[in-house]
Amino acid sequence: MSTKRILWILIATLAGLVNAPWAMAQYGVRNDPRGGTWPSDDPPFIEYDPFMEATPFVDPGYFDHDLQFFAPVEVEEFGGNPPPRTGWYFEYSRLYLSTSTPELGVNSNWQSYSWGNRFEIGYFTADQTGWMFEYTRFAGPSSSTSFINNPDQVYIPDPNADPDVFDPNPTAGTPTVALDVRSIENIGDLHRFDMAKAFRLDQFDNGGTVEMYIGGGYFGFTDKSYRATDVQILDPITGVPTGEFFPNQPLTVPVTNNRIWNMMVGIRGRKQKGRWVLTGEARGLAGINFQHFAPYTTVTAAFGNATSVLVARDYFAGSTSDEFVVGGDLRGEAEFQFTRDIAFQVGFSMTYLGTGVARYGVPSANNEDLMMVGANFGFLVNR
Fold first, then answer.
1. Could you read off the pLDDT of 40-89 as tens digits, one per residue?
2. Residues of the signal sequence (predicted)?
3. Which CATH number covers residue 16?
4. pTM to 2 decimals?
5. 56 lies in which domain range?
């Protein structure tokens, strides 16, 4: 079965699963006039709107929040638990994650670290259904190595020689050069967007809540490897370096683009005790990775003067492929309720794609895994 056919099957399955509950839930939508902090005992009944149920859009004034974000925390001292929140919510997390390096890279067992950002916005209605939107931006995880290879000798023909006359020493009067690989650096870049329909189960007796998600998203990961080379001029007779380098050194940049379209299911648990809240979340995803390889090599080495250019050319060769991808996320957080609606959180995040990821610009090695794990901190509003 082709990967394109698998992709269409995933899309059709996702559409069917997301729409299935709506045909059954032909009941009215109830509105919490206090904006989801403490639902009233008898919220007003609003006429059923099938468009709102089948899409993530709601009227601007659907949730009438009192805007008292800094109201004091309402904590039950003698048992009892606050009901689940409804209305719009927002969450921001600052990420510090390590990223696995390519298997073919010079530091394949190393982890590279960098900072990123994650934004989540969504809502729940009084009927405990809603939508979730999440965007993650993570740039700059890099792994580099500096070293000198055994130089490759390059002999340059004498530009002043007569091409019609045989010369037993064609490099006479022209310096030879040595090519030394100076450094290799691997850099990653991530853009991720997820959208899901959310369902909240009835609150447990101990105050815990469970939310379930089903949706899809886009996972874009770009892998670049910079290979810098020193070109040094050698004495044509002794082969000893003259100490003169070409002013513009060759640079090779293999670029690999992973464009993953996936469907996603998830579950999130939450338990509050006083001002403290503990949460745990797990997601699973599967999809198709449309890969694109674009290795660039730029050589603009020159010596002597600006007009004596050895090579000045960009080399480009591209190819495409596609692979099936499976993976998931694990998250755990501890939140402290600062005010009624605002909380601060700290926790850990892990994303793992077990197969189907292309790295290092090599089309034949396009089925690697990708691990991103680390810590996060941030704040939440009405979550």
1. 444 444 444 555 555 666 666 666 666 666 676 776 655 567 788 888 89
2. 1-25
3. 2.40.128.100
4. 0.69
5. 3-381
